[in-house]
Write a structure and sequence with these properties.
The protein is built from 15 helices and eleven strands. By secondary structure, the chain is an alpha/beta fold. Helix 10 crosses helix 11 (286-299).
């Protein structure tokens, strides 16, 4: 058994000084000006919005905050208040947060973050999950919480070999939970984590009590018969889905040529910031965005995190539908799966919740709903 070592973040001041210096010397991309015309009269240049991608004004404002007002040391201290560890599994360093509940019968739960988020995605959930009585829940709702950094992301460091896809990551999580003494456990995931977590159920069904996700990635297969009899709201959803896929440029780039883009991201913190803002830009707290950007920058994991998309894109497709207990918490400002396609791929959906608020990053903007749904789902399956 490989050792589990305590981990403490202590970024050299020289690295932070270098980051500030690079931000101060940013050469900004030009941006296409447009003109507002009213009654045939041009009212002056107006910058375009997000239709061309992340606007320069958005990145400039965040970069200025990053350079002049953002306090990494305060964030570093907050992160270090959670017990962190590293271990090596399958030749790869794995960083993780591990907080045991005081409740002896708590359910072990591994939480998997998405891209371009990091393990920071779930830190605000640790208290409510491990100590539910202090946060409006019952003692029976308690969890022992494990939050790993995906291989190639943040403090897990660079991946050192090909093949680090969702299936290999799921096997790694199973090994990690075993090393921590958890024979059976639950899993939750969002974004990339909603790909990894079902893999745990597929590959380690004997150890998984249930899998809870924020997205179910079940789409039309291309068979026209699947599209017969769609209700108007289902057609509307498919139209929305097409727009979402077309917007998700990070998927296409990182699935095909992750290394090409990574050369620019490794050299420019403003570029790294803009790249992750295409998905994180809607998070209401700018310091959440900047903490994630800082972690990617300091660990230089733009390339290795992007390779996760490439590896998944080139992995073998799934075979039979899943049978483990699956629960969905779908939030208002995120894409929602059509249940007919979800039930085609997953034969044991035991919980399906749709909420009228929250986004793709519900752990940040609707944590109360997410925690309540996690509690409700695992009451059913454990």
């Amino acid at each position: 058994m490989s050792a589990i070592a305590p981990f403490h973040i202590d970024v050299p001041q020289a690295d932070l000084d270098d980051l500030a210096d690079r931000l101060a010397r940013t050469r900004w991309a030009e941006e296409l000006p447009t003109a507002e015309v009213t009654d045939g009269v041009q009212r002056g240049p107006v910058q375009p919005g997000w239709e061309y991608g992340v606007p320069a004004s958005f990145v400039r404002d965040l970069a200025a905050r990053w350079r002049d007002a953002y306090d990494w040391r305060a964030q570093e201290a907050r992160i270090n208040s959670f017990p962190q560890f590293t271990t090596e599994i399958d030749g790869q360093s794995v960083h993780f947060v591990h907080v045991r509940s005081a409740e002896p019968d708590a359910t072990p739960l591994v939480l998997t973050h998405g891209w371009p988020n990091t393990f920071v995605e779930y830190l605000d959930l640790v208290g409510p999950l491990t100590d539910p009585e202090a946060h409006g829940g019952a003692a029976s709702d308690a969890f022992h919480v494990v939050i790993p950094s995906l291989p190639g992301f943040g403090f897990s460091g660079h991946t050192r070999a090909k093949g680090w896809n969702a299936a290999r990551t799921a096997d790694t999580w199973a090994e990690l939970m075993g090393r921590l003494g958890y024979g059976r456990f639950g899993a939750h995931g969002n974004d990339a984590g909603a790909i990894v977590s079902p893999e745990l159920g597929r590959r380690h069904a004997d150890r998984i009590t249930g899998v809870h996700v924020n997205q179910i990635f079940s789409f039309p297969s291309g068979d026209p018969a699947e599209l017969t009899g769609l209700a108007p709201e289902e057609v509307e959803y498919l139209t929305f889905l097409q727009g979402f896929v077309e917007h998700a440029v990070h998927d296409r780039v990182q699935q095909t040529q992750p290394q090409t883009l990574a050369h620019a991201l490794a050299d420019s913190p403003a570029g790294q910031l803009a790249w992750i803002c295409q998905l994180l830009g809607g998070v209401p707290d700018p310091d959440v965005i900047l903490t994630n950007a800082t972690i990617y920058w300091l660990t230089n994991t733009a390339a290795s995190s992007a390779r996760f998309y490439y590896e998944n894109h080139h992995a073998e497709p799934h075979g039979e539908p899943t049978t483990f207990p699956l629960g969905l918490a779908s939030f208002a400002h995120d894409f929602r799966p059509l249940r007919r396609f979800a039930e085609r791929d997953h034969k044991n959906i035991v919980s399906w919740s749709e909420f009228d608020r929250g986004s793709h990053w519900a752990a940040h903007d609707a944590p109360d709903l997410l925690v309540d749904d996690l509690r409700s789902f695992f009451r059913r399956v454990r």
